[in-house]
Amino acid sequence: xxxxxxxxxxxxxxxxxxxxxxxxxxxxxxxxxxxxxxxxxxxxxxxxxxxxxxxxxxxxxxxxxxxxxxxxxxxxxxxxxxxxxxxxxxxxxxxxxxxxxxx
Length: 103
Known about the structure:
It is built from 5 helices and no strands. By secondary structure, it is an all-alpha fold. It has 2 domains: 1-59; 68-103. Helix 1 packs antiparallel against helix 2 and helix 2 (16-36) packs antiparallel against helix 4 (56-67). The longest helix is centred in the last third of the chain and has 30 residues, at 73-102. It is flat, with a radius of gyration of 16 Å.
């Protein structure tokens, strides 16, 4: 919740696409660190970084609503929600099989 607020403020000062990329970088870095953690002391900073990156949902919706005209906005938001749901479904399963592909 705090990262959404801070990213929203930042998106008014710098380009919103930069805010989205930075938050996705935090999310990616946090989740990679979380997956590679070997003890609980590595998990806490990893979850912190991933939590900072989780604010990208709010600014992504703001970006989609700003680039589409009013008539196409509901369809665009529906596509964004669908992409998010597909990521929630297939993301963990894909990452769970990653060690088998690497080795």
